Design the sequence.
C-alpha cells in the first residue's frame, strides 16, 4: 500500500511538472509553526493537539492559474494522555508521525494579500510506543503494559489559507485544514502481570483530524521571462 501511494504521488507530480515547466515560477517553503491533531491512539479521549516548530516543507510550481504543490511533514516527540476512562488508564510514550502530500492551491485574489483554498492527497504514517498504567478507583497503579499502535494510509485534505507577499521574492502564509484519514491500524498490548500476555489486533479506521493553524515562509525562484 505504501509503495502504491508513493508511486502514484510521484507520477502525478512529474506529470504536473511537465505541464507547467514552460512558464512557471518555483517556490520553496518551510513550516515554521503548526498546531495539529494527531490520529487517535488506542481509546484516547480526547484527541490531543500538538504544537510543533520547523517540522515540514513545501515545493510549489506556479503556472499563473494554479499552484501545484508537494509537501511533507515529520514529528517525533513524547506524549502522555488518558486512555479509556472506565479503567482510568494513563498512557506515556513517544509518537512518530509523518505525511507526504500532493495537491494544488488556487488564489482568490492576486494582490499582495492573497486568500486561497487548496486540496491535497497523500500518505500518512503514525506510530506510538509506550506504556499503559492501569489504575484502580483509589488511583493506585494496578498493572503496567507495553503498548504499540501503528497506523498508515490515505489522507484527503481540503485547506483554507492566506498568503502575504511583502516583497517579490518572499511570502508568509497561514493555513488551516481538515484531514480525512483512512488507515490500517495494528495494535499490540503486552500486559505484565504474574505472566506476560500479548494481545494483537488489526482493523481499518476512518478519522477526521483538524489542523487549525500552520504558519510558514516561502521563497520564490525562477522567472516567466
Sequence:
Amino acid at each position: 500500500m505504501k509503495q502504491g501511494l508513493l508511486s502514484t504521488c510521484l507520477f502525478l507530480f512529474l506529470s504536473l511538472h511537465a505541464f507547467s515547466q514552460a512558464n512557471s515560477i518555483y517556490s520553496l517553503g518551510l513550516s515554521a509553526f503548526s498546531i495539529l491533531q494527531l490520529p487517535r491512539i488506542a481509546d484516547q479521549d480526547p484527541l490531543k493537539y500538538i504544537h510543533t516548530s520547523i517540522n515540514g516543507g513545501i515545493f510549489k510550481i506556479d503556472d499563473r492559474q494554479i499552484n501545484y504543490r508537494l509537501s511533507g511533514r515529520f514529528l517525533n516527540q513524547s506524549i502522555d494522555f488518558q486512555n479509556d476512562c472506565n479503567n482510568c488508564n494513563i498512557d506515556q510514550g513517544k509518537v512518530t508521525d509523518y505525511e507526504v502530500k500532493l495537491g494544488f492551491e488556487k488564489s482568490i485574489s492576486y494582490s499582495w494579500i492573497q486568500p486561497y483554498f487548496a486540496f491535497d492527497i497523500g500518505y500518512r504514517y503514525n506510530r506510538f510506543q509506550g506504556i499503559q498504567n492501569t489504575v484502580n478507583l483509589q488511583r493506585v497503579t494496578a498493572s503496567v503494559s507495553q503498548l504499540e499502535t501503528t497506523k498508515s494510509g490515505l489522507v484527503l485534505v481540503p485547506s483554507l489559507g492566506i498568503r502575504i507577499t511583502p516583497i517579490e521574492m518572499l511570502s508568509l502564509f497561514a493555513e488551516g485544514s481538515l484531514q480525512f484519514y483512512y488507515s490500517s491500524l495494528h495494535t499490540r498490548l503486552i500486559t505484565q502481570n504474574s505472566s506476560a500476555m500479548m494481545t494483537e489486533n488489526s482493523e481499518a479506521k476512518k478519522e477526521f483530524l483538524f489542523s487549525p493553524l500552520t504558519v510558514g515562509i516561502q521563497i520564490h525562484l525562477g522567472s516567466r521571462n
User: Anything to note?
Assistant: The radius of gyration is 21 Å.
